[in-house]
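Recap quiz, item 2
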Amino acid sequence: MDNHFEMGLDELRQKLLTMASHAETAVNRAVQALVQRDADLAQRVKEDDRVIDQFEVEIDEFAIQLLTKAPLATNLRLVTVAMKISQDLERIGDEASKIAKRARDLSLEPPVKITLDLPRIANLALDMLKAALDAFVNRDSAAARAIIPRDKEVDSLNKQIHAALVQHMEENPDTIGRCLHWIVAAKSLERIADHATNVAEDVVYLCEAQDIRHTGAKSQGASAPGS
Amino acid sequence: MPDSPNQMPNAAPEPGFANSPALAVRNLSVFFGKNAAVKNVSLDIAARTVTAIIGPSGCGKSTFLRAINRMHELNPEARMEGEIKLFGDDIYSRAVESVTVRRRIGMVFQKSNPFPTMSIVENVTVGLRLNGMRDRKTLAARTEQSLRMAALWDEVKDRLHAPAVSLSGGQQQRLCIARALAVHPEVLLMDEPASALDPLATAKIEDLILDLKKNYTIVIVTHNMQQAARASDFTAFFYLGELVEFGPTTKIFTNPAQKRTEDYVTGRFG
Amino acid sequence: MTAPNHRWRKFKNGFMQTLTFVCAILVVVPLVLVFYHLVREGFTSINWAFFTQLQKPVGEPGGGMANAIAGTFILLAQAAAYGVPIGVLGGVFLSEYGGTKLNWWIRFAADILNGVPSITWGIVVWALMVVPMHGFSALAGGVVLGMMMIPLVMRTTEEVLQLVPAGYREAALALGIAKWKTIVQIVIRTALKGIVTGVLLALARVAGETAPLLFTALGNQNWTHKLTEPIAAMPLQIFAYAISPYDDWHRQAWAGALVLLLFVLCINISVRFLTRDRFQPKI
C-alpha cells in the first residue's frame, strides 16, 4: 500500500529541484551573455524567466494543498521551507533577468576597457547556490551552515568591483553609462549569493528546526538561543 | 469480472453509460416521521473519485449516505422523496429490490462488525456464499483479491481460518472493507470508517481509500476535516439537512465559496 | 473530621456487608439441605436395577424406575419437538419483525402464560385432548409440556436475539443479503448459544412438572408402546411412591427424586459449559 502523502512530498521536492535547475541555468546563461556580449542569449534568459515564475506559483499552490492535509514535524517544515525556497529561486531568476538585460544593453555599445572579475563572483554565487541545494537534497545541516560565511567573500568581492568601476568612471566619464550597467550586474550577482544564503538558512531550519536567520550566528555549529 | 488475485475488478460502467456520473442525486429529501433530516439535496458524484461528506453532528450526512444504498429503509418511520441514479439506473424504482441495490453499492460502518461466529475467510466470502455462489475456486480467488485490495492479505494469509474477532481493531475494519469489496460493488460507502481507530490504523485506512479509488467510486462521511483533505477529491458540506457547498476538496478547504462553509471549516461553529 | 461520625459510618458499612453476605449464603442453604437429604435417603437405593427394571409388585424388594426414566425422556423429547420450533420462531418474530403494538400484546400474553399454574395447563389439555381421545396418552403429556415451554422459549429467544448488536444485521443487509437469510445465518447463528441455553433451561423446568402430567400422561406401570397410551414419568412415579404406605417404595421415591435432581443439575452444568467464554477477542 502506498503512502500517498509521502508521494505528495516527493512530488514537491521534485518540483523544487526542477525549478532550481532552471534558476541555475538562467544565471549561467546570463553571465555568459554578459561576458560574451551575446544579445540573443540575453533575450532567451529574459523569456525563460516566465517558466521560473510559473514554477513558483505551482509550488505554492501545491504546498497549500499539502498543508490542508495537516502535515506535522519534518513534513510541516518541508512544506513551509519549500514555499520559501521557491520564492528565493524566483528572485534569483529575476536577478538573472536583470543581468541579461544589462548584458543586452552592454552588447549594443563598445566594450569598456577594464578587467573585471565578474566570472569569479558569478562562480562563487553559483557554487553557494549549488551547495545549498545539495544540502537540501541530502538533508545536510552542517553543509548548509558552512555556506553562510561564504557570503562575506562575495560581499567583499562586490565592493572591490564597485570601487574599481567607480574609479574608472571618475577617470573616464564617457564610460559612466556602461559602467553603471556593470555595477548593477555585479550587484545582482551579490544578491544571488544572498538568496543562496537564505536557502541555506532554510535548509538548517528544515533539518534542525532552528531558525538561524538574523541571529548574527553566522558561524558553523553555533547554538541559537531558545534551542 | 476477472477473478485472479492480481487483477482488479473493473468498476467503470459499460461504454453506453460512460457519461453518466456514478451517482446522480436529484432533490433528495429524507423524512423521519414529520422531521426532515435531509432537505432537497442534489449533486453528482463522478466515477472513481472519493467524495467526502462533512458537517456538524446532526446535519444529515449519515442519513444522506444511508439513503444511497436504501439502508434508511430499516427504520420503519423513514420516507424519502427525490431520485438517485446509479450509473443511470434509478435505484428507487419499483422494479428494483433493495437487495439488488445493496449488491451494487457496498457499505462500511463506523464500528467494525465482522461476524463473530465466522472465520476471516468466511467473513470475506459471506456476501457471495449467502447469495448463492458455491464454486470453491472462485471463492478462494475472490478472498485473496479482496484481502489484497484491503491491504490485509499479507497479515492474515497464514491464518485465514482464525476467528475474525482475533484481529485488532484496525485489521477488523480492513476485513470489513474486504468483505464489502468481495461482492464487487460499483460504489463503496463509508460511514466514519476510521473514527474508532488509533492514528496509525486511521492512516492505513486513508491510504487504502486512495488506493481503492483506482477501481471504485467512494463516498465517505467524516467529521475529521484533515481526513477529508487527505483522502478525498471532492467534498460536500452539509448543514441542518441541506447541502451548503459541494466542490473540489482543495477549494473547500482553502477558499470555500459559502460563508457557512468557511465558518465550519475554520472552527467557528460545529 | 469528627471521630464519632466516622465510626458510625464504618459500622454501617460493615453491617451492610455482613448482612448481604449472610443473605447470599442463605440462598445456598436450601440447595444444600435438599442435596443432603436426597443423598442420605436415596443414595443407597440407586443401583443398576433402578435404571433397568420396572417396578416390582408390592412386597417384592428391588425393582426400578426404568419405564419412568424412559418416559420422562420421551415426554421431554416431544415437548422439545412441539415447543422449540414454535417458541424459537415466535421469538424470532418478536425480535425481528412485527409492528410494535402487536409485539406488545404478544409479549403480554406470553408473560401471562408463564405465570399460569401448571395444574391449569394440565386441565386445559385434558379437556382438549384426553377427553376427545377417550384416554390418557403420552401424546397429551408431550403436548402439555410443549405448550408450557413455548412462552418461556419465546421470551428467552427474543431477549437473546435482541442482544445481538444491530451492527451485524446492518452489515449483512448492506451486503445485499436477504432479510430472512440474515436472520437465520447471521442473527440466529450469533445468538445460537443463548437460544440453546433458553431451550435447555425450559426443558429443565418442565422436566420436574408433576401436576399437568397427572391429567394427561397419567403414568404407567409397564412399558408404553404407543404414544396414544398412558406413559410413566419420573415426577409421577415419585409422587405415586411417596404417598404409598410401603417403605421400599418410599426409598425408591427418594432415589427417584435424587436422580431427577441430578438430571436437572446436569442440564444446568451443560448450560454453564456451553456459555463459557472460550475466546478473548483482542482489543
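The domain at 70-233 of chain C is CATH 1.10.3720.10 (MetI-like fold).
Chain C has eleven helices and no strands.
End of item.
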